[in-house]
């Protein structure tokens, strides 16, 4: 009892101290500002998320070397939510309330984002989410620097339908069993139907997280593809399941010229350690590829290579790879810096307002713009084919940036939804 | 499999041709370099139609993304559509090659689906071809091309011809023809389609069977070690999964060591004993230090081994990092055997099935044919009596636990060839391992084998029928009900078994 009393006293005094310091004087003390990094460093998603943590750290180093944000030095706070969705919410709360970070960069899977969303809304803090996702969400507390379905999934399917993509007529929608693949496939199904694809020409299948045995799935795809015209596979498999999936695909001899597989969550990083020679020609749709040849990308990849070497990041120090979510993370942190400097404050509502219309010269070669209203980036879409070296060869791209449609027109009822955060829209009334 | 031979032969062919002067259709080559994709496809067709062996060299370079125009190299982007067209074109050109292996590979490639524009070339090849293996393939290719184009009699003949094949491509073509406007063609196509489907169904069934055996062999490997430590010795070893993980990481370390040498493809020969020894050593240390003091107290054993499993995970995480490490397959483990036209058996899985059988045979021999095996069986059946006749029971316990752990290490070595190797690797297999051992009947090695295969088949058949997510749930429900009805598992220990 006694000990608990002391604890209570301590925590109360800490709380009072925190309130006393308040928002105005908290950062001024050592002229530092804390930034949270919320990416899984272990578990099934670590394969994808670990580099994003390092990308934030690299950008932070860069910004600090150039004098920080508004003269404040950025102090990164790294936590590991361990691919455990409820733990994401706990860690987010810890970052915001205990570490008092000004902004959080984090999450990969939509289920983790959905898990932290109530925390950010309740505590009115900011999250930058760097991964392509299914849409159906605009929160005033989140900036989405990855692609919405119309910036990735739909163009990819359109490409496969085109003559150059192989004029696919039958579709296998394959994914990991959670919200992103389910919603994306719902959108794609509606889209395919609108293009006149019959119900019997679509096969949908899901596997659990961390699934390792893709024998039957590949056999099913083979059977399905022999039943009619040209078949294509749309894969929304996430995390380390991709390694056994592509290994099985290669071993079973399913070639891209027969049945192309287009993936939305497989980039340069996921293909590391997979023998890509049998996979040449399979596709991925992203808003950035490491192989893109622009001066901005040369600089980005060089910076990453030297950073990885300096910090001896496992894997990357010998074979540095960059990918789309890394680029999106990088754009996000620089846009946040620009917005803070424009708002002249770390205050969340002020930064949020200043984010609208921010632009940044993205490594992909375009000038990416944060939409004035809907919290999503305008991005260019690229479709790449896997090469024998584990890179992607861009075979198609949009002419310029595409505005995000977080509310997909292919889901019923979305036409009535506003293209901006709900709360803001209410305030304006 | 034949790819490398084919490539080598192709290279030889190219060298022979390189001497000849460039006398190709220049307009076509220019189109390859600068045209849009439609024009490029046209150009490929034009180059092939001439049947000029020089086209081979140009197209092979084109597939690599390079075209030479007037001595200047131009880079081109080659996508799937172009790559497919080039592959078919190269195959068609190779039909005229002098080497039999090349022609056979080319004919096989074309049989998997080819554009009708290659028909003249195929016909030309058919005139010359005498080989008994290649000729029927070519006839099939010609038939599938004539399916779409020729007159009615030709089409009917083609449909009948396709009806005798076992290629999935024929099925696709016939399914299309089965919706034809012409009554006769439709009827004939439906008949042929049924015949082809009947034959293909066998491939599918065998494929499912193979998937079941493959999963069964993996489950067996994972559970076999546990069958000794839990089944025979009665230790509820929650760290069993981590011993598997240690085996996988040992394989990784061996692989890294071998990467610098020229014997990379043979690293598994060293990795197999290494993973056994390392995991066995860890297991024996565990037994000596912790588990020995907890015999007869299952609850404490469970808690202690669970704690050890967490420590081992963290240890590996600290040593190797939290991310998965990459274990590359040796060259002979990638690819597969084309058993039937629609059934490929991946080498990695075939090897693991064989490996599981070997491990099982080895363990059986060890338990029934050696002195140590005799001691282990003696101690598990009646510890007091064994002790009385002079068996050093404590030492036998250590050896037995080491054996079980070593086999877990072997499982890790095998699993590293199929999936991911990370600190959490063992967590995914601990539940499955216990399921297999309990389902088979605790204390029964034969039971473990049957249980692993049964669960492997059940899982794969359910997966094919209801999808992976539901299959997993259904299987767990089935096991719960089964254990409720028959707690002793499939095979019960009969007779005067000693229950402590």
Please provide a written account of the structure.
The complex is a heterodimer of chains A (429) and B (500). Chain A is α/β, with parallel strands linked by helices. In chain A, 41% of the residues lie in helices and 16% in strands. In chain A, the strands form 3 sheets. A 7-stranded mixed sheet of chain A has the order 7-6-8-9-10-14-15, sandwiched between helices. In chain A, strands 2-1-3-4-5 form a 5-stranded parallel sheet, sandwiched between helices. In chain A, strands 11-12-13 form a 3-stranded antiparallel sheet, with helices on one face. In chain A, strand 8, helix 8 (242-251) and strand 9 (261-263) form a beta-alpha-beta unit. Helix content of chain B is 71%, strand content 3%. Chain B has helices at residues 3-18, 26-34, 37-49, 53-63, 80-94, 100-111, 119-128, 134-149, 152-163, 168-177, 183-232, 240-259, 267-289, 298-320, 347-369, 371-381, 383-388, 393-415, 427-440, 445-466, 468-485; strands at 66-69, 72-75, 336-340, 343-346. Chain B starts with a helix and ends in a 15-residue tail after the last helix. The interface between A and B is large, with 60 and 61 residues.
């Amino acid at each position: 009892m006694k000990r608990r009393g002391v604890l209570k006293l301590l925590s109360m005094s800490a709380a009072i101290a925190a309130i006393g310091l308040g928002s105005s004087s908290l950062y001024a003390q050592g002229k530092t500002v804390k930034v949270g990094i919320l990416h899984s460093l272990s578990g099934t998603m670590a394969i994808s998320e670990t580099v994003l943590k390092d990308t934030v750290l690299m950008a932070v180093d860069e910004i600090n070397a150039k004098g920080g944000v508004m003269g404040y030095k950025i102090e990164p706070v790294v936590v590991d939510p361990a691919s455990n969705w409820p733990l994401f919410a706990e860690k987010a709360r810890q970052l915001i309330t205990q570490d008092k970070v000004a902004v959080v960069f984090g999450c990969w899977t939509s289920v983790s984002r959905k898990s932290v969303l109530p925390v950010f809304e309740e505590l009115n803090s900011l999250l930058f989410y760097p991964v392509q996702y299914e849409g159906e969400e605009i929160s005033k507390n989140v900036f989405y620097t990855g692609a919405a379905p119309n910036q990735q999934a739909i163009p990819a399917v359109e490409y496969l339908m085109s003559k150059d993509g192989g004029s696919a007529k039958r579709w296998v929608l394959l994914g990991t069993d959670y919200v992103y693949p389910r919603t994306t496939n719902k959108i794609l199904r509606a889209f395919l139907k609108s293009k006149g694809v019959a119900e019997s020409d679509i096969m949908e299948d899901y596997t659990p997280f961390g699934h390792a045995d893709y024998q039957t799935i590949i056999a099913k795809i083979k059977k399905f593809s022999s039943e009619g015209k040209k078949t294509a596979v749309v894969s929304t498999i996430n995390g380390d399941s991709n390694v056994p999936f592509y290994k099985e695909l290669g071993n079973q001899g399913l070639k891209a010229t027969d049945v192309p597989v287009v993936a939305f969550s497989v980039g340069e990083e996921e293909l590391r350690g997979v023998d890509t020679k049998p996979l040449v020609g399979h596709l991925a749709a992203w808003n950035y590829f490491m192989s893109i040849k622009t001066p901005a990308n040369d600089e980005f990849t060089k910076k990453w290579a030297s950073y990885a070497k300096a910090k001896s990041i496992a894997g990357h120090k010998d074979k540095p790879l960059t990918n789309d979510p890394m680029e999106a993370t990088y754009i996000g942190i620089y846009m946040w810096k620009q917005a803070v400097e424009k708002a002249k404050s770390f205050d969340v509502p002020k930064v949020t307002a200043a984010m609208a219309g921010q632009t940044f010269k993205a490594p992909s070669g375009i000038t990416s713009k944060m939409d004035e209203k809907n919290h999503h980036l305008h991005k260019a879409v690229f479709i790449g084919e896997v090469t024998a070296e584990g890179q992607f060869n861009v075979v198609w791209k949009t002419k310029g940036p595409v505005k995000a449609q977080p509310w997909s027109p292919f889901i019923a009822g979305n036409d009535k939804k506003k293209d901006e955060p709900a709360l803001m829209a209410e305030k304006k009334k | 499999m034949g790819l490398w031979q084919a490539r080598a032969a192709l290279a030889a062919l190219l060298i022979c041709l390189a001497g000849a002067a460039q006398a190709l259709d220049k307009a076509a080559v220019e189109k390859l370099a600068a045209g849009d994709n439609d024009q490029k496809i046209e150009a490929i067709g034009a180059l092939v139609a001439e049947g000029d062996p020089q086209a081979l060299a140009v197209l092979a370079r084109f597939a690599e993304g390079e075209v030479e125009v007037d001595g200047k190299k131009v880079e081109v982007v080659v996508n799937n559509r172009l790559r497919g067209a080039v592959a078919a074109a190269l195959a068609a050109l190779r039909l005229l090659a002098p080497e039999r292996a090349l022609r056979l590979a080319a004919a096989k490639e074309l049989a998997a689906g080819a554009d009708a524009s290659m028909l003249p070339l195929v016909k030309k090849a058919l005139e010359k071809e005498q080989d008994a293996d290649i000729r029927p393939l070519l006839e099939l290719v010609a038939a599938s091309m004539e399916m779409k184009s020729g007159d009615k009699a030709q089409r009917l003949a083609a449909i009948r011809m396709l009806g005798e094949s076992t290629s999935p491509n024929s099925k696709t073509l016939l399914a299309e023809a089965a919706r034809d406007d012409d009554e006769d063609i439709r009827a004939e196509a439906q008949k042929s389609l049924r015949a082809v489907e009947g034959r293909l169904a066998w491939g599918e069934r065998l494929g499912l069977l193979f998937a079941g055996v493959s999963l069964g062999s993996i489950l067996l490997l994972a559970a076999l070690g546990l069958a000794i430590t839990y089944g025979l010795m009665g230790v509820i070893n929650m760290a069993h999964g981590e011993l598997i993980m240690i085996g996988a990481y040992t394989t990784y370390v061996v692989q890294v060591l071998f990467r610098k040498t020229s014997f990379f493809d043979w690293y598994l020969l060293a990795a197999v004993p290494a993973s056994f020894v390392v995991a066995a050593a860890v297991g024996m240390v565990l037994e000596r230090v912790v588990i020995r003091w907890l015999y007869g107290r299952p609850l404490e054993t469970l808690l202690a081994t669970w704690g050890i499993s967490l420590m081992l995970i963290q240890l590996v995480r600290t040593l190797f990092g939290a991310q998965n490490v990459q274990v590359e397959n040796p060259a002979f483990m990638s690819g597969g055997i084309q058993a039937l036209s629609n059934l490929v058996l991946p080498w990695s899985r075939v090897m693991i099935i064989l490996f599981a059988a070997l491990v099982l045979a080895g363990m059986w021999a060890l338990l029934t044919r050696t002195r140590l095996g005799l001691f282990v069986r003696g101690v598990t059946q009646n510890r007091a009596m064994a002790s009385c006749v002079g068996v050093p029971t404590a030492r036998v316990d250590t050896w037995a636990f080491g054996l079980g752990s070593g086999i877990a290490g072997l499982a890790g070595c095998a699993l590293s060839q199929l999936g991911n190797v990370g600190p959490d690797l063992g967590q995914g297999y601990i539940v499955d391992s216990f399921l297999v051992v309990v389902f088979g009947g605790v204390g029964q090695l034969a039971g473990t084998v049957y249980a692993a295969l049964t669960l492997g088949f059940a899982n794969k058949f359910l997966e094919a029928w209801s999808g992976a997510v539901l299959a997993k749930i259904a299987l767990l429900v089935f096991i719960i009900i089964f254990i409720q009805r028959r707690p002793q598992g499939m095979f019960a220990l009969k007779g005067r078994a000693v229950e402590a």
